[in-house]
């Protein structure tokens, strides 16, 4: 069973994503339950992955500013949260660079493939990479990524 704190956190994220996508939280939930991914929904709404990331970052910053303004958090806490947003953005860019390098693409070329709706496996196939190549990449990439995510989660506690 999901605890009330986690349920509240997930609900807040659903509302945030819905607002970014220009949908009600109920409409977003229904589309996700019907099997659509956030990426699919964003594309259908005319948004790119980058648009979604920029909007998400802006919404997080506005929420922090609001919490600071109403005295819910201190300036130190606000600075800490803003720093985590920037750290997350940098890690995302590093991951994207690693994936682009694997495909022998520039970051811009990888972004173009993603905006065209192509998934990892489709890009790999187009680049002439085998299933073994993909498997080897994930075997190397995922443990490092999981380690970094675990470090990030523990540091935010």
Gist of the model:
This protein has 157 residues and is mostly helical.
Main features:
mainly alpha, disordered C terminus
What does this 3D model show about the protein?
By secondary structure, this protein is mainly α. Helices cover 80% and strands 0% of the residues. The two termini are 22 Å apart. The relative contact order is 0.06. Residues 146-157 have low confidence and may be disordered.
Structural class: mainly alpha
Euclidean distance between termini CA atoms: 22 Å
Helix content: over 70%
Mean pLDDT: 80
Gross morphology is globular
Number of strands: 0
Describe the oligomeric state of these chains in a short phrase: single chain
Q: Low-confidence spans: pLDDT under 50, at least 5 residues? A: 146-157
Order of helices and strands: HHHHHHHH
Largest sheet: none
Strand content: under 5%
Question: What is the alpha-carbon Rg in Å?
Answer: 18 Å
Write the layout of secondary structure elements.
Elements: H1 4-21, H2 25-33, H3 38-44, H4 49-69, H5 75-103, H6 107-115, H7 120-126, H8 131-155
Helix pairs in contact: 1-2, 1-4, 4-5
């Amino acid at each position: 069973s999901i605890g009330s704190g986690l349920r509240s956190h997930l609900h807040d994220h659903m509302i945030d994503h819905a607002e970014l996508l220009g949908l009600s939280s109920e409409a977003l939930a229904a589309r996700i339950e019907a099997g659509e991914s956030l990426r699919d929904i964003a594309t259908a709404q005319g948004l790119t992955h980058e648009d979604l990331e920029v909007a998400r970052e802006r919404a997080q910053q506005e929420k922090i500013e609001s919490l600071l303004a109403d005295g819910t958090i201190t300036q130190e806490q606000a600075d800490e949260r803003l720093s985590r947003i920037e750290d997350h953005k940098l890690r995302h860019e590093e991951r994207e660079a690693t994936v682009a390098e694997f495909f022998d693409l520039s970051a811009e070329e990888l972004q173009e493939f993603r905006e065209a709706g192509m998934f990892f496996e489709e890009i790999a196939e187009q680049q002439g990479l085998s299933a073994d190549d993909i498997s080897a990449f994930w075997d190397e990439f995922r443990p490092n990524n999981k380690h970094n995510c675990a470090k990030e989660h523990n540091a935010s506690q």
